User: What shape does this take?
Amino acid sequence: MNEPKGTTVQERKRCVICEQPRPSGIQLFESFICEGCEQEIVKTEIEDMAYYHFVRRLKKIALPKT
Assistant: This one.
């Protein structure tokens, strides 16, 4: 697995899209999206069936409690 040097299993966060533990990505409120999924989301066209998969997964993002 290609991980940055010094990354431990404990430092990985679970991606809300692919549901895999990954060492890097973006944090959205209480949720995490790995770099690979972020790149796929950005390049996916609305006509692509994968677009709807991403929409369903993104609905899982937890908003902060006020």
